[in-house]
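Dear colleagues,

For the upcoming journal club I promised to circulate an example of a predicted protein-ligand complex. I picked one with adenosine-5'-diphosphate because it came up in last month's discussion. The inputs are reproduced below in full, followed by the predicted structure.
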Amino acid sequence: MTPEYFAKRLAREKQARKEAEQLLERKSAQLYEANQQLLRINAQLEAQAKDLAIARDAALELTKTRSMFLANMSHEIRTPLNGVVGMTELVLESKLSAEQREYLSMAKTSANSLLSLINAILDLSKIEAGSLEIEAIPFSLQDLVNETVYPFRLHAAQKGLAFSSEMAANVPRRVVGDPGRIRQVITNLVGNAIKFTSSGEVSLRVRDGEVTACGEVPLQFAVRDTGIGIPRDKQNTIFNAFTQVDGSITRRFGGTGLGLSIAAKLVEMMSGRIWVESEPGQGSTFHFTVLVKVDDMAIEQQVATAMAAPRWEVGIGSAGHQPLRLLVAEDNPVNTRLMSALLLRQGHAVQMVSNGRDAVQAFQPGRFDAILMDVSMPEMDGFEATAAIRRIERELGQRRTPIVALTAHAMKGDMERCIEAGMDDYLSKPIRSADLFEKLSRLITVPVS
Ligand code: ADP
């Protein structure tokens, strides 16, 4: 290895390093430039997003202002229009020539159509402006349905249509919700059903779903008709504002195309949904659900009366099963309330007592379908009371009334003690309504010897 060789190699390495450094510098410059470009794009995007947010807020504000304007206008128009309708009716009641009566009746019909259009616009704009409130007031569902369909019975009869309305037995009769808005949706659907049906029948059915833990229950309404039906591709769009299936047909029938979109919005505000099943030429079924509360006040009142003196309190609902006559012995006031509310809500008839002695006194063979017996109670506990009841049954030669123990702690051996004392089953607290009803239905359907 000569010194020249080393010198040459050193020079070659220096050159290579220099070239690598230059390459690195070029790449860093490119990266820097790319980064700058990204920063510029980012700044542009941010500016655009800001502009879009401003435009969106302005559009929302505009919609709100427009809706507020519409709401105010339709409200203002309604007042004089009501005057026109009212006055026309007054004149119609007076002595008129046939011709005058005909003209005035036409004026009244037109004024009424205008009034429904204005009412619909008022509703829709109020909903869009977010100023429509859903009320929560207690009311009788049965009365609401009866009153709402009453005028339609006549209308259907005039068209030669059969009309029926039916409420399932288990639907709670008193609920808390917005009766005015529920009535509005039913009115729209039943009105449409009669409008678009020339022969056959129209029916309204009301059912309910599972009661939630917080006492809410979904009501399910179905309005069925045997009318013209709705083509499949229109079955969703009819829920949009100003949409009608066929202009020529609906012009014949009248209408605004606003009813269903308002109904859909109202139902949504009541935590429900609306949909249609339809076969063109066969008819349609419009379904909608709304969430209401079971009227606890009514139940509370029943519970309070039931606790004040042991006498029959009959529930205001039922879960589709046969209502039972139950004796409940429970000393804890909170549990008493819970038990009686649960049972009354299911439509059972209940007598409440707060100790074992009163339970024995209230007992008569055949008087109750079952007894729910707390285990630890003052005066006489559940075991003693059960033993006394079994003794009475034996002495009178009567069949055993099922007794379900309610125990605070599901201790090992509890079941044995309960059975030994003459009970048929036991439930451990806190009582779950599903367990309670499952136990009751099992005990009552299987005859106890
Ligand atoms: P309107 O009835 O005032 O036109 P709606 O919003 O209530 O407005 O209904 C929208 C359209 O949906 C109706 O114009 C009609 O074409 C169709 N439609 C609604 N209900 C029925 C029905 N029961 N049978 C057939 N078509 C219906």
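Two points we might discuss: The chain has a mean pLDDT of 85. The radius of gyration is 37 Å.

See you all on Thursday,
B. R.
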